[in-house]
Backbone:
């Protein structure tokens, strides 16, 4: 599974969805980046492959960051995705 974390203004925790296919995750990542670059405010809708009933909608000008990370059986259990990973290593 590939996890996509959105960092949203005024929300202290990231909003996350998971995708089964790397190509789907990369496409979604690119769509979010394009929405962030756009001068026109858009609604970005996300769905999760792991929790099929999970849906997220965010206004594009409120997204402050995006993190894409691989989750598989070979990764360490103490891996912290995102910007706090360097703090966890200290």
Residues:
């Amino acid at each position: 599974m590939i996890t996509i974390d959105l960092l949203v203004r005024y929300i202290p925790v990231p909003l996350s969805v998971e995708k089964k296919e790397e190509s789907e995750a990369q496409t979604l990542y690119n769509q979010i980046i394009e929405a962030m670059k756009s001068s026109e405010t858009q609604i970005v809708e996300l769905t999760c492959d792991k929790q099929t009933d999970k849906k997220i909608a965010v206004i594009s000008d409120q997204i402050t960051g995006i993190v894409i990370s691989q989750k598989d059986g070979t990764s360490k259990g103490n891996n912290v995705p995102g910007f706090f990973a360097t703090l966890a290593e200290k």
Remarks:
- The first helix runs from residue 22 to 37.
